[in-house]
Amino acid sequence: MSVELISVTESFSVSRQITAADIPMLVEAGVKSLICNRPDGEGNDQPTITEIRTAAEAAGLSIAYIPIVSGAISSNDIKDFSTALDKMESPVHAFCRTGTRSMTLWSLCQRAKGVADAQLLAQARDCGYDLSDALRSIPVAASKVSGSAASEDHFDIVIVGAGAAGIAVASSLMTRMQTLSIAIIDPAEVHYYQPGWTMVGGGIFRQEDTVKTMASLIPDGVRWIKSAVGSFEPEDNRVLLEDSHPIHYDRLIVAPGIKLDWHGVDGLVETLGRNGVTSNYRYDLAPYTWKLVSSMQKGKALFTQPPMPIKCAGAPQKALYLSGDHWRRNGVLSNIDISFYNAGPVLFGVKEYVPALMQYIERYQAELKFGHRLSRIDGDTQTAWFETQDESGATVEVSSDFDMIHVCPPQTAPDFVKQSPLADDAGWIDVDQNTLQHKRYANIWGLGDAMNAPNAKTAAAARMQAPIVANNLLHDLGRVSGVAHYNGYGSCPLTVERGKIVLAEFGYGGKLLPSFPRWLINGQRPSRLAWILKEQILPPIYWKAMLKGKEWMVNPERSKADQ
Predict the structure, then answer these.
(1) Per the database record, which ranges form the FAD/NAD(P)-binding domain (predicted)?
(2) Computed over its alpha carbons, how large is the radius of gyration of the chain?
(3) What are phi and psi of 549, to 5 degrees?
(4) How many Å apart are CA 259 and CA 118, to the nearest integer?
């Protein structure tokens, strides 16, 4: 779907995120220059600035990159934006996730030139943006904000993030109690079934079967605030949206997901999606993985895994197994040199599953390179460099050429979480690992990939966490008895070959937590039944059960002392 340009003046327009495919339309519309205000890595379907710049410059457009962390516009940002507008050939088109940051920056630049707030607010409203809170939050000495205060939005429960964890916990709450006022905040138009992307990269799932509209998934009775969170103000029981509008809450649930740090590897963003460089961690790149695998007849294939934490720690090697299996079935495996470069010290963090996985490493003749972190990549020469340690313990860099490389990017907490009072020293939401309640703010809970409990970051973990958070929040309200405890459960269906899976299920400390009796599915051995579970059963369970508040195979333990 092509992006819609919102005309602000004859020489300036804004929009939501654009893609390289939108560039011809922008040129046809007369745009001469672009300004990107969205930092890379905010979304799983977000093209990098390098991809946009390459397409823009090829079409004769100039482009400036002024990334703004949502809700954190500084005076230097305003100055940089103003300078870019003055220097660039018009018409200029600016974009971010929703267009709000771009519209706000333009308005603040105009205000600095003496334009009255009333005029700017009216102009923004005509374009579909309410900037009353944004202008109020960034005062300028030369002018005062006019107009009355925006009406307060107050809810019993506010949920930040409408990914797997956010929607699941909203549905779990609604299943238990329909009388609460609940809001869920997320700007995304679509929702992805991310566990399916490995299967897309293996030629098993269709890309389009891993996505649905967000509107179709928000639970009935829950208000969807289609915006991004800019900051948290837990002392005042409110969050500020990226336009600075406050949303007040009695209790808060934070589930914003994880940030893919594509810039954590030098040169990676310049070559993603071409030169044999791919990743199943992005919706639009998973089909490229399959294109590379299905067309490869000989050469060198590299698979990488960065330092923990990452979401679905098995996904990097799943790509290796499905690729190796395809090459074996097509009789070309002997012509392909496979290497797995893992920044960690072991193949898998739970030792009981390693013997079965090693059988497949040997079957596909893959060379294991532990303690090797991908540090930089040159797509044009198809060369990758890795940091490791030599025999004396000194850090050294080694290189390898490649014909194909599957990259798992480094991952961090979202910027607006890292910079918030909710974060621990490493930037993750600081929760009690058993109750998932925040350690410092008693009316806040966290779940999903952005919180700091030492569990595997998987959709299966979120499936278990959602009813625990729902129960414990309602216990805090005095509506249910007993505090539920999370045991760290996570599941990683390791697709070792087409038709068989090693179903790893474990909790805190690597304790095995199988869901099925060993006679049905022995998770320490490759299983055809586990494959059927992954391919045919788990997707409809995700869409029709987990996201609908039907808590399949979830029965959290409750503290007897609290019952």
Answers:
(1) 155-271
(2) 24
(3) 80, 10
(4) 37
Only one residue has tokens 């790149």, namely: 285
| C-alpha span between 495 and 551 (Å, rounded) | 25
Confidence of residue 332 (pLDDT cuts 50, 70, 90): very high
CA-CA distance, 495 to 531, in Å (whole number)?
A: 7
Q: What is the C-alpha to C-alpha distance for residues 271 and 267, in angstroms, rounded to an integer?
A: 7
Report H helices in 113-241.
117-126, 132-137, 164-176, 197-201
> Which comes out higher in pLDDT, residue 133 or 561?
133
Could you confirm whether 109 is annotated as catalytic?
no
Our measurement of the distance from residue 192's CA atom to the centroid of its chain's CA atoms, rounded to an integer in Å, reads 10
Given the residues 36, 96, 312, 408, the one annotated as active site = 312
Domains defined for the chain, CATH in brackets: 6-137 (3.90.190.10), 154-258+413-562 (3.50.50.60), 262-410 (3.50.50.60)
Task: Give the DSSP letter of residue 47.
Answer: P
User: Considering the chain, what percentage of its residues have pLDDT values greater than 90?
Assistant: 83
Question: pLDDT (tens digit, 9 = 90+) per residue, 428-456?
Answer: 999 999 999 999 999 999 999 999 999 99
End-to-end alpha carbon distance in the chain: 52
Whether 244 shows a pLDDT value over 90: the answer reads: no
Residue 262 pLDDT class (50, 70, 90 cuts): very high
- Six-digit token pair at 38? 């969205």
Return the residue matching tokens 């005076």: 75
Q: Quick check: is 312 catalytic?
A: yes
Q: Is the peptide bond before 345 cis (omega within 30 degrees of 0)?
A: no
| Cβ atoms of 413 and 450 closer than 8 Å | yes
Tokens linked to 241: 């949206």
Whether 141 has a pLDDT exceeding 60, the answer reads no
Residue 200 one-letter amino acid: V
Residue-level pLDDT at 309: 93
pLDDT, residue 560, reads 57
Angle at 309 between CA 399 and CA 421, to 5 degrees: 130
Query: Could you identify the residue written with the tokens 């079934």?
Result: 193
Which residue, 264, 262, 241, 238, is CA-closest to 252? 238
Q: Is 252 helix (H, G, I), strand (E, B) or coil?
A: strand
CA distances from 15 to 35, 99, 120, 129 (A): 11, 5, 17, 11
Run of H or E residues at 76: helix 75-87
- Under 8 Å CB-to-CB from 294, ≥6 apart: which residues? 203, 326
Q: What is the distance between the alpha carbons of residues 43 and 351, in angstroms, rounded to a whole number? A: 33
Q: Which residues, at least 6 apart from 458, have a Cβ–Cβ distance to it below 8 Å?
A: 195, 311, 312, 490, 491, 492
Choosing from 36, 96, 408, 492, which is the catalytic residue? 492
The HSE-up count of residue 250 (CA atoms within 13 Å, CB side) is: 10
C-alpha dihedral, 535 to 354 to 454 to 258, nearest 10° = -50
Give CA separation, 168 vs 160, 252, 313, 547, 549, in Å. Answer: 12, 15, 22, 5, 6
Q: Residue 140 has what pLDDT?
A: 47
- pLDDT of 488: 96
Name the helix (H) or strand (E) containing 183: strand 182-185
